[in-house]
Amino acid sequence: MISNKKNHLSLKVVYFLFFFLLLFPKISIISLPGYKQGIRIEDLVTFVLLLFILYNYKKFHFLGNSGEIKFFLFTIFIFFSYLIGVYNGVSIEIFSVFRIIEYFTLLIFFSTFYLDKNKITRILKLVIILNLLIILAQYFEIIGYFSSTGYTSPKVFGWKATGVFSGQWELSFVISVCYLIIFENQKKKFDRYFFLTVIIIYLSGTKSVQLAFIISILYTYFKFYFNYLSIIKVIIFISLFILLLSLVIGYYNMEVKYLLTTLYDLFMNNTVPQFTEDNVEYSSWIHRLHNWQIYYSNMQLNIFTFLFGVGYMGIYYESFIFRILFGNGILGLLILFIFVYKINFSILLFLLISGITLDFIASFKIFLILYLYFKMLPKNSKI
After folding, report:
1. Are the CB atoms for 318 and 357 separated by under 8 Å?
2. Buried b vs exposed e over 71-91: b needs ≥16 C-beta within 10 Å?
3. What does the alpha-carbon distance between residue 248 and residue 94 come to, in Å, rounded to a whole number?
4. pTM
5. Could you give the CA distance from residue 364 to residue 73 in angstroms, rounded to a whole number?
6. Cβ distance 163 to 134 under 8 Å?
7. Quick one: three-class SS letters along the chain?
8. Which of 354, 340, 305 has the alpha carbon at shortest distance from 325?
9. pLDDT band at 161 (very low <50, low <70, confident <90, very high)
10. What's the alpha-carbon Rg for the chain, to the nearest Å?
C-alpha cells in the first residue's frame, strides 16, 4: 500500500469516494434498451477511476491484507469462468462482465490506500443514523425511495423501509454488516448502534437477513462472553438459543421440508414444481427454482463447465451460493469455501444464511460493504 505521505490523492477524497459510492442513490443517467436500469453515476465514477489507474499504473500496487487478496484472486477466477462459458457457446450476460470489471477496478484502487479504522467506524455509525432518519421520513411519506428503475413516490406503492438504498434487502444487509464492522473494531456489548441496527432490520422486513443477523449476532455475543460464563450459564444460553431459533422458524412459517425437497428434485431429477393454486405461497421460491434450473442445465454441458462454471448468464441470480455454483462451478464453490475457511464465524454465518436467497454480486453497494469488512481485517489475518 502507498503510504499517506506519498498519496497523490488526499485520503479525505478516498473516504468521500468510498462512501459516496456506497450511499448515493441509484440514479440512471443513460438508459439502455432492453434493460430496466441504465448507466448510473457510480458506473461513470468507476470508469474514471479505471482510467486514472491506467494512467498512473506505477503508483497503484495491490498489496492488501489476506481478505483483500482473496477478493482479488476470486475475481480473476470469475473471468476464467466466463472464458469457459464463451468457449462452450453459452450466452453470458454482457453487463455482468462490466460489473465484475467495476469490482476489479475498485479492488485495485481502494487497496492502495490505508483507511483509518476509527474514522471508518465513526462514519459507519453515521450511516446507521442517517438511514434510520430517512426510514422515518419514508414512513411519514415525506420522501420516497430510489430503486434500480428510478425514483418511486411513497404514495405509489405505500411505505417501504429502504433508506438510501434501492431495496429493503439491500438496506438490511448493508446495515447489518456496518454493525458487524463496528463491533469487530470496538468490541462493545449492546450499545445504541446495536439497537438502531435491530430497528432498521426489523423495519426492512427482509426475513432472510433478519434470521441471518439474529443467528450471527447470537454467536458473536456468545463468543464474546464465553470466557466469562460458567457451565450452567452456557447451558442456559444454548437452551435459549434453540428456543429462539424455534420461535423464529415458527414466526417466519418456514416450510424447511418443502424447500429441501424442491432443491433435491432440482439437483437429482432436474425437475421443479409448476405454479399452481396449492403452492401460491411459494411462488417466489418456485420462480427462483425455474431460473436455477436453466443455469444448472448449462453448468452440466461437460466436465469443464461442471468444474469451472460458465460465467454469469443473468444479472440477478437471487442467491449468492447458487450464483457461485452455477457461474463458477464446483471448483469455484470449493475455492470460495477454502478462502473463507478461517473467516470470522459470525460473518460466515451471516453470509451463508442470507446468501441462500440474496445475491451479493448483483449489488454494487453490497460488494462495497463486504469489501470494507475484509479490508478492516488485520494485516496478518489468516482468512
Report:
1. yes
2. bbeeeebbebbbebbeeeebe
3. 40
4. 0.85
5. 19
6. yes
7. CCCHHHCCCCHHHHHHHHHHHHHCCCCEEECCCCCCCCEEHHHHHHHHHHHHHHHCHHHCCCCCCHHHHHHHHHHHHHHHHHHHHHHCCCCCCHHHHHHHHHHHHHHHHHHCCCCCHHHHHHHHHHHHHHHHHHHHHHHCCCCCEEECCEEECHHHHCCCCCCCCCCHHHHHHHHHHHHHHHHHHHCCCCCHHHHHHHHHHHHHCCHHHHHHHHHHHHHHHHHHHHHHCCHHHHHHHHHHHHHHHHHHHHHCCCCHHHHHHHHHHHHHHCCCCCCCHHHHHHHHHHHHHHHHHHHHHHHCCCHHHHHHCCCCCCCCCCCHHHHHHHHHHHHHHHHHHHHCCCCCHHHHHHHHHHCCCCCCCCCHHHHHHHHHHHHCCCCCCCC
8. 305
9. confident
10. 21
Q: Provide φ and ψ at 150, rounded to 5°.
A: 120, -170
pLDDT tens sequence across 24-65: 888 778 777 766 677 888 899 999 999 988 888 777 766 556
**Mind listing the pLDDT tens digit for each residue in 212-260?**
898 888 877 777 666 555 565 556 556 655 665 665 556 555 566 777 7
Cβ-Cβ contacts under 8 Å for 117 (sequence gap 6 or more): 185, 376
Please report where in the chains the cell 463447465 appears, as a residue.
305
* List of residues 6+ apart from 182 with CB closer than 8 A: 121, 124, 125, 193
- Whether residue 301 contacts residue 310, with contact meaning beta carbons closer than 8 Å, is answered with yes
